[in-house]
Amino acid sequence: MSTQISKVWKEKPSNQTMKRERFEIMAQILTFCVQARSKTRIMYKSNLSYALLKNYITLLTVRNLLKHIPRGYVTTEKGQRFIEAYAYLKDVLEDRANNAFSVTIQESYEELEIIETRGKA
Question: How many C-alpha atoms does 118 have within 13 Å on its Cβ side?
Fold first, then answer.
């Protein structure tokens, strides 16, 4: 479980200007809050405005993924299952994308070989 949690937070998009998806932001907040964290720390770590942070915290607490405690916010058991499911789906989708890319490259090589063979004949 810990490798999946760390994978969610540490991986960054290759293009830094790319917008994050809603589920990615939720997973990052939940990952960071495995230990109790204040709103301020969550806001800085997740790189969100205060207004957006309030929306996400409300969404996560209403869905029982995040719990408010005296020291701040902490991820619930249901929230940890969300992190695991998100990491799993992300891996599956990346594998499919990588496999599709590999197939495309292989097809390109095969087409190139056919063209080269025709040129020699």
Answer: 6
64-77 confidence digits (pLDDT tens): 999 999 999 999 99
What does the alpha-carbon distance between residue 51 and residue 38 come to, in Å, rounded to a whole number? 15
Helix (H, G, I), strand (E, B) or coil at 17: coil
In the predicted structure, residue 78 carries a pLDDT above the cut 80: yes
* Residue 69 main-chain phi, psi, to 5 deg: -125, 170
Top CATH class of 2-120 equals: mainly alpha
Which amino acid appears at position 121 of this protein?
A
What distances in angstroms separate CA 54 from CA 60, 95, 101, one per listed residue?
10, 34, 39
What does the alpha-carbon distance between residue 78 and residue 22 come to, in Å, rounded to a whole number?
Answer: 18
